[in-house]
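WARN no homologs supplied; continuing
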Amino acid sequence: MRLLHTSDWHLGRSFHRVSLLDAQAAFLDHVVATVRERDVDAVLVAGDVYDRAVPPLAAVELFDRALHRLAAAGVPTVMISGNHDSARRLGVGAGLIGRAGVHLRTDPAGCAEPVLLTDKYGDVACYGLPYLEPSLVRGDFGVERARHESVLGAAMDRVRADLAGRPAGTRSVVLAHAFVTGGAPSASERDIAVGGVASVPAAVFGGVDYVALGHLHGAQRLSDRVRYSGSPLAYSFSEAQHRKSMWLVDLGPAGEVAAERLDCPVPRPLARIRGTLDALLEDQGLARHGEAWIEATLTDAVRPREPMARLLARFPHTLSLLFDPDRPDGDPAASYARRLQGRSDQQVAEDFVAHVRGGCGPDAEERAVLRGAFEHVRVDDAVREVAR
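OK structure emitted
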């Protein structure tokens, strides 16, 4: 069976205030063309269909057109909700839409109810695990701790139990939206937990033939059977070196996996350039970036006059301008952003406590209070997203 694995469409998202709707439409054209040209048997979309819980009308219309075209192609599509989606909104009409071959999996209670796909070798049970916010679903799965590994583990136990009751030789596919240990994140994914506890080991997904992951925006192979497709477009300059693609997966008669990486259309390349303003304007080696979207970091000791206007004269698609003056490491004027780079909210808060108490950082009980406060804010945000 031939599967096309994609994820993280983020329909409706812009790139530094530049609309990406045309580029997203071109990507969906590419998906439909690939389905037809490469004899795809099923399309897998591993979450974050939309960029926010209440997407703009133009994004909804784009999604609607895509569903109609995939249904018209006669190829089943299995799709789950991600942490950016409103599961309840995305799942409206799922029963009716499923009759057209587009299977929306947005309800955690249905994680062990597969879409059954069939080829000449028998059935493929395709399980959709929507994004599982631990604090909201821990009761549904009967787990004590609100941790991603706990709820995903419980969901996968249900999947394996269902699979064990099916005829011998039934192959299996799982779609999930999660941060799996070993994956490389970028700056454009929304954090799904406090203090790094979002990550789950790949072993959670043991016992199935292929795991189609979403959430991380870079295409990655964690193992032959566990892969991220990544987002089809770049959504931050941290993705400048990404090769945007989809996985074309051939699932053999005994569950063997062979995967081919298919490139996605690139609306415009990204480039990150760094140096003094004069150096950037004069460097002939940068001419190759004339048509790229540019993030420029200026290292001038003193902020130059009209830097954006001067950059635009040479690089007409400059979108982001940052300032990071070159200073000795011990200089007290070193940028605040540099001092915070790579530090979590929890670590920043603990550093602040140490600062105001003359170097005495929080004890274990105080760290737990801080962790609980951040968790409370995150869960509040998640509840509001679900309610919208």
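The radius of gyration is 23 Å.
OK
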